[in-house]
Amino acid sequence: MFRLIVNMALNEAQARAVATKMSQVAQQFLGRKISYVGYVPRDPHVSQAVMQSNPFSLRYPSCSAAKAMRDLATRIDQQRLDQPGESKAGFFRRIAENLGLASNG
Fold it and tell me: % helix / strand / coil in the chain, to the nearest 5?
């Protein structure tokens, strides 16, 4: 199963609507299920940090996008730790596996 994080959503309702539509399309055309993990809100601090050539989570650590990224990382990491018998691979490897970008074997 693939997991979905919606980026630049105005709010939770919009993110869930996007996730629902993406899930339907993935099921219909790819025969794959998608699980909604959460969202990163639209945040002007992200574009400001990009223009300054800085990671937004370092430049503006208290902005809503940075908080959402930390929350999502914690949630994904905790889900992996809660699964018995799963490999305790590195953090980025676990994120890639959870997003369906790498195999967990």
Answer: 55, 15, 30
